[in-house]
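quick one
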Amino acid sequence: MSDTFDKDQKAFVISQLRKATYKWKYRTEAIRKARIDRGVYICATCSKLMMAKDFSVDHKTPVVDEKGFVDWNTYIPRMFCHTDNWQVLCKECHDIKTQHEKEGRKMYRQKTKPKVKTSKKIKEPDEELF
Ligand SMILES: [Zn+2]
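structure w/ zinc ion:
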């Protein structure tokens, strides 16, 4: 049996972890804090009022930052964070933030590309030692 964790397994585990956050008490607590009246919630960014069906519950510090997926020991505690790292956003604000984070990851990948080449070049003299 292979001990590698393939793409399908990873995608499945992530989707299940995401579902599990719906029952996470600190997420529920953040939603309760954003509730200003019966069925009315306020966006943490633009203060727009909205119904429960219209908001997204967001991780202020993204679960996957600009460096991309690191490991499960980083991913899981970020996913199941405390109340102060959750915020309720309207769809527009959430889309903007998500887009911004996506661009940040893209820029990070572009920035780190030459470093990969550099590290390969550094390895070459080492290989000569053996
Ligand atoms: Zn908003």
